[in-house]
Amino acid sequence: MNGRTPLLRLLCLPMLALLALANAAAVPQRYTLDASASNVSAKVPFFGLASKTARFPRMQGAVTIVPGAPEKAVIDVTFDATAIEAPDSVTLARLRGEKFFWVEKYPAIRFVGRSLKLASPTRGTVAGELTARGVTRPASLAVTFDSDPVAQAGKPVSFTGTTTIDRREFGMKSYQLIVGNKVDITLKARMVPR
After folding, report:
1. Mean pLDDT score of the chain, rounded to an integer?
2. What is the distance between the alpha carbons of residues 33 and 192, in angstroms, rounded to a whole number?
3. Would residue 22 count as lying in a domain?
4. Which residues of the chain have pLDDT under 50?
5. Domain count, the chain
6. What is the pLDDT of residue 20?
7. Is 62 helix (H, G, I), strand (E, B) or coil?
8. What one-character-per-residue DSSP string does 107-140 give?
9. Range of the domain at 156
10. Is 20 among the domain residues?
11. Fewest CB atoms within 10 A around its CB: which of 17, 63, 129, 174?
């Protein structure tokens, strides 16, 4: 028995090492959004000939990615609607007012993604919900990471997410002859480990 004990230990070491690696790989990777390197833009058709783009430069949020289980990923980002920027003062006043974002009553816009479906190591879709102007609707964000977030564990990772919404679903129904109903939203974010 004593002669076999060292041999058994020697054989068990690789198995224990593999189990340790498997457990380490499944540890959730948690990130905080780097607000200084992140922003959101919303582009809408204008008179059917051009477009106008508003920006939300202030945000906060967190991202959790579970290696081997992307369906458990969570992206929770809140945009400061009161900080909205627009190409001119008239558009800015309208966007901040009651007929659009109504920032006095609804100062924040929030996207919560609760599942990441990866098509490749750097591309996927986040299914979740967008809340704006007090209304919550399902929304899917097509995301592209600048590098594989699982392989880059412990390092900053950036991504771009895009989606299109119908503004009428969020109670923004004014100026339909001038302003298009479909809004293209782009989120550019840098995540830093926490």
Report:
1. 87
2. 6
3. no
4. 8, 10, 12-13, 15-24
5. 1
6. 45
7. strand
8. -EEEEEEEEEEEEETTEEEEEEEEEETTEEEEEE
9. 27-193
10. no
11. 17
| 167 contacts 142 by C-beta, under 8 angstroms | no
72, HSE (Cβ side, Cα atoms, 13 Å): 10
Residue 4 within any structural domain of the chain:
no
pTM of the model: 0.81
Find out whether 159 and 192 touch, Cβ atoms under 8 Å.
no
CATH code of the domain in which 59 resides? 2.40.128.110
CB atoms near residue 75 (< 10 Å): 26
Q: Return the number of other C-beta atoms located less than 10 Å from residue 148's C-beta.
A: 13
Q: 127 lies in a domain? A: yes
Instruction: For the chain, give the number of residues.
Output: 194
Distance (Å, whole) CA 177 – CA 168: 13
